[in-house]
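To the team - nicotinamide-adenine-dinucleotide complex, inputs and output below.
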Amino acid sequence: MSNPSLLILPGDGIGPEVMAEVSKIIDWFGAKRGLKFDVSEDLVGGCAYDKHGTPLHDDTMAKAQEVDAVLLGAVGGPKYDVLDFSVKPERGLLRLRKEMDLYANLRPAQCFDALADFSSLKKDVVAGLDIMIVRELTSGVYFGEPRGIFEEGNERVGINTQRYTESEIDRVARSAFELAMKRGKKLCSMEKANVMESGILWREVVTEVGKDYPEVELSHMYADAGAMQLTRWPKQFDVIVTDNLFGDLLSDLAAMLTGSLGMLPSASLGAPMENGRPKALYEPVHGSAPDIAGQGKANPIACILSFAMALRYSFDKGDEAARVEEAVNAVLADGLRTADLLGEEGVQPVSTSEMGDAIVAKLEASL
Ligand code: NAD
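Output:
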């Protein structure tokens, strides 16, 4: 049987720096756990524009469609701000998401013990937190028609339309139930069925899909109450599924319960391929951080945890994903901090590569 395939797109700014640390971990799994990947690497974003005059070459797009998972660093930078909208680095990322039809965006909020003091909430509210928000990514009010700013009488009116088909709700609900099956078997669906027809349909379809997953405990909550509950007692949740707009807000809220941008991974999943694996793109939430690029200051943990998500959700290696997460927890418990995580006095920051090496050392110690 051939090895699972990975396309690595480091991108711009700190992207290549953090991805270099992920490569150390991929190599470690190949050498020590017999988990070998066929890895190819390509350009996306500003560096692709520099070489090809486009932020995503057609050949790269075709490769992304073929592999088992894509791992992306970050794109963009001030050098490219002057470019026409159609060739800006971010267009490369948007094209990947669109053409791979990645409709389920997964944003975990996970609190590592050593960083519980970093949260703006009380330590006992966030310690041990591990939840996942699944946001519908390709439909809803950001895409619905009609949209625009129109003349109406003697004033203008701005219009956006919340629109969801049953099949769009069905497929993202299935992704969320599948995730819940791999986690704590609890799913909370959030909408505004009290005031929005699209919310009523959302609730009906999610309930219907739930009949195929009798092991998962399904609950429903209005999204505004959900925001309140997320800040009051987030540990009541395991997986949350919600639409594009509410998910945009709730995933940012949940992610920041646990601290720095340099720690936040994400995944975007699409329909299952022939081999049963979902189309998948894994990437840190942060951008290319031009202010610290090239200085060895970037925190590689968000990108490393994105790879851990790939292990769990594309390759069914939940135990190996947990091994990576435990290694991250262990280096943080030892007091290692990249500059973005400094808070305690007298702590000297470690560099990007020192953090990566320390995580590999903890993986080694886990054997
Ligand atoms: P950013 O996420 O790049 O940086 C925001 C702040 O967080 C900066 O101070 C940065 O130094 C810090 N930071 C981010 N990641 C870090 C890490 N891993 N370790 C330590 N510190 C980190 O957001 P921005 O400054 O708004 O955008 C910079 C560029 O990145 C822009 O061109 C933007 O368009 C692009 N961007 C790309 C993506 C993506 O590729 N998915 C996402 C957001 C922004």
